Amino acid sequence: MPELPEVETVKNTLKRQVLNKKIELANIYWNNIIAFPQVSDFKRCVQNQKINNILRRGKWLMFELDDYFLLSHLRMEGKYFIRNVGDERNKHEHVIFQFDDNTELRYHDTRKFGKMYLVDKLTAYSVKPLCELGLEPWDENLTVEYLRERLRNKPIKSELLDQSIIVGIGNIYADEILFLSKIHPNRLATKLSDKELSDIIKYTKVTLEKAIELGGTTVKSYTSSEGVHGRFQNELLVHTKASCPICHKDIVKTVIGGRGTYYCPSCQSEH
Ligand SMILES: [Zn+2]
Fold first, then answer.
1. How far is ligand 1, taken at its centre, from the CA of residue 162, in Å?
2. Are residues 72 and 177 in the same domain?
3. Would you call 2 a catalytic residue per the annotation?
4. CA-based nearest residue to 159, from 128, 129, 131, 200
5. Are 97 and 105 within 8 A, CB to CB?
């Protein structure tokens, strides 16, 4: 599944490819991808809208049109390709935006789990799905006090994955952040000290910035729209590793909240 750094990479790639293009029409071949509004309204509203910018919020790509935000979540397998009008349609290309310059932006999704919303630009942040998202890792409101208010009495690993608290921390990144913060993944979030919460904030930024710089981690089926593969996987310290890069003890693999979790039993003490 593409994580925040991968979505950021896709965003930057698409910005080079589709900025300032005008959508002449949209063809939808799998209606369930359009979550809002109804397909007929979606098709009518995107017509003649220009792509003025592309932003990202959490794992949502936000195409800024003249009057709307087109929000796109890639979920498991979503990808975008640029093709020419008339190029044969791949059977996994479910939504096709035709531009006025004879090119097309095609949304490809073998699993069909991806979702798109077309929301009014003025209210986009106060309606679903964006209103349900927590803070970005770089938001200045992400403070120890904010975390104290929001974290529940659950393992910190699970809380870091909760997108309504902080967006963009996927499973791999949560393990790396906790390793750098020297915090055992099973410790209760409400029992962490101010210093530990502050370390989590610091290393969340460090880890995601580095992952963005390297284009994310390679996930088996994931490619960005230019086929870029992330190099962050070469930099992992604990996730999927056999021994700790600091103390050389064996890394432990366990399951927390249903997710495979790696930690160093010596550097990340349970108490
Ligand atoms: Zn260690």
1. 26
2. no
3. yes
4. 200
5. yes
